[in-house]
């Protein structure tokens, strides 16, 4: 290939490049875009000739509070003065007046390896340095997603000339605000992780990235047998109060458990005969206190302890945290439940037995004299059933004085009345 041919090709390439640059000048792009509908507006080319991070404010415009005007139009000062007057008269805060520390909800516009741009409805995007965000946060940054972002530096304090923000700080601020708002109703529970402890004082609980504090007395329905037992575990907690002085949110696991009690009581009341297990929370002379089903507390009276537990109780060997088995004896209220380790003895009604045994009358039975009165003799005709043999039923030759207690006498049962608990006898 000749040098002249090479020069021709290079010259043609330069002309094509210059022609392309000429077509993409600010004036030509504005002319092309000016007649296009919004759906066909060439935002990419428009942005290439109007980059926000290289704009310089108009030094001839007089502004307030460090505000900047970038327009070079002749009416720029007049327009700024009109807008300033409007906001002063209506007492509306200009939407473009943002400050460091504020949290805004915006839409993720674009994401690359190093930066994420978020549209918060301001004249400029908020830029997030991805190297400062956690992997979990970066995974949430998808174009089109709504996200909270906290302003780190505005254009006045940022030498780079654009707004910096933090998504992680924005999410934390939004969650903190939500938690604080839930304190008023006191009915919202969050999953928290116990991340640290103050021995015999309380626990540090992380709730969705927000560090809270839970006093030891609010860690359960009863005092925990082992203070460190819930470290590094997850549990539901209810925000209770906020200490402005310390900037600390107080949460309670106990409040959450108390809300479960009515339903749990209803459940156990429907199945009282099954054997359950729980943990001792304390003991006294009259019984042992037990926590079970996570949120219920009951007491086993000393008379309802089995022999093994009775011996341990007398020797004071029962300690908080010990596992113990029992059945529910009686549910008196949501906060008063009686437990037992002793099997119920089946109570047999002797009147029911005698009514089932004797169905036709008269029938002869042998009774045992229980007591002797002027008006007759009381006889035990069946275990637990005592009837009266009235003197009117004695024959003339019958000597009542010859009868003694525990004598056996053959009598006839003529009628049994279960309702009045009476049995009618005659010789």
Structure description:
It is a single chain. With 427 residues, this protein is an alpha+beta fold. Helices cover 25% and strands 33% of the residues. It has 9 helices and 20 strands. The protein has a 5-stranded mixed barrel. A 5-stranded antiparallel beta sheet has the order 8-7-6-9-10. A hairpin with a 4-residue loop joins β19 (408-417) and β20 (422-426). The longest helix is centred in the N-terminal third of the chain and has 21 residues, at 3-23. The chain is rod-shaped and about 145 Å long.
Short characterization:
This protein has 427 residues and is α+β, with helices and mostly antiparallel strands. It is built from nine helices and 20 strands. The strands form four sheets. The chain has a five-stranded mixed barrel. The chain has a five-stranded antiparallel β-sheet with strand order 8-7-6-9-10.
CATH topology of the largest domain: OB fold (Dihydrolipoamide Acetyltransferase, E2P)
What is the CA-CA span between the terminal residues?
A: 149 Å
Instruction: Provide the CATH superfamily of the largest domain.
Output: Nucleic acid-binding proteins
Beta strand %: 25-35%
What is the element layout, followed by pairings?
Elements: H1 3-23, H2 26-34, H3 43-49, H4 76-90, E1 103-111, E2 115-119, E3 126-129, H5 135-140, E4 146-153, E5 163-166, H6 167-182, E6 190-198, E7 202-207, E8 210-215, E9 234-243, E10 248-252, H7 253-269, E11 276-284, E12 287-292, E13 296-301, H8 307-314, E14 323-333, E15 336-340, H9 350-357, E16 363-373, E17 376-382, E18 385-390, E19 408-417, E20 422-426
């Amino acid at each position: 290939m000749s040098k002249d041919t090479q020069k021709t090709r290079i010259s043609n390439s330069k002309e094509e490049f210059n022609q392309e640059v000429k077509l993409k000048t600010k004036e030509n792009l504005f002319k092309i875009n000016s007649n296009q509908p919004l759906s066909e507006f060439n935002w990419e080319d428009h942005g290439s000739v109007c980059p926000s991070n290289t704009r310089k404010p108009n030094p001839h415009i007089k502004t307030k509070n460090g505000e900047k005007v970038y327009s070079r139009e002749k009416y720029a000062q007049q327009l700024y003065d009109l807008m300033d007057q409007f906001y002063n008269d209506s007492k509306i805060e200009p939407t473009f007046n943002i400050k460091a520390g504020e949290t805004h909800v915006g839409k993720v516009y674009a994401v690359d390896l190093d930066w994420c741009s978020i549209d918060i409805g301001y004249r400029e995007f908020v830029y997030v340095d991805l190297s400062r965000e956690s992997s979990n946060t970066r995974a949430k940054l998808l174009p089109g997603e709504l996200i909270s972002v906290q302003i780190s530096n505005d254009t006045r304090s940022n030498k780079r000339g654009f707004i910096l923000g933090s998504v992680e700080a924005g999410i934390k601020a939004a969650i903190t605000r939500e938690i604080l708002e839930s304190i008023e109703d006191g009915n919202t529970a969050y999953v928290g992780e116990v991340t640290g402890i103050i021995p015999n004082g309380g626990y540090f609980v992380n709730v969705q990235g927000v560090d809270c504090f839970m006093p030891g007395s609010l860690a359960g329905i009863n005092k925990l047998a082992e203070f460190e037992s819930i470290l590094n575990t997850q549990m539901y907690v209810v925000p209770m109060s906020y200490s402005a002085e310390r900037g600390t949110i107080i949460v309670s696991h106990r409040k959450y458990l108390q809300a479960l009690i009515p339903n749990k009581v209803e459940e156990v009341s429907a199945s009282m005969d099954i054997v359950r297990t729980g943990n001792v929370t304390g003991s006294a002379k009259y019984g042992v206190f037990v926590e079970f089903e996570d949120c219920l507390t009951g007491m086993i009276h000393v008379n309802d302890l089995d022999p093994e537990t009775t011996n341990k109780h007398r020797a004071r060997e029962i300690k908080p945290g010990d596992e113990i088995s029992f059945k529910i004896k009686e549910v008196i209220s949501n906060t008063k439940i009686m437990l037992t380790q002793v099997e119920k003895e089946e109570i047999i009604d002797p009147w029911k037995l005698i009514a089932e045994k004797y169905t036709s009358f008269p029938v002869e039975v042998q009774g045992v004299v229980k007591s002797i009165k002027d008006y007759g003799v009381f006889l035990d005709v069946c275990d637990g059933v005592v009837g009266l043999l009235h003197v009117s039923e004695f024959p003339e030759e019958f000597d009542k004085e010859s009868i003694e207690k525990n004598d056996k006498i053959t009598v006839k049962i003529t009628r049994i009345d279960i309702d009045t608990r009476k049995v009618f006898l005659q010789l």
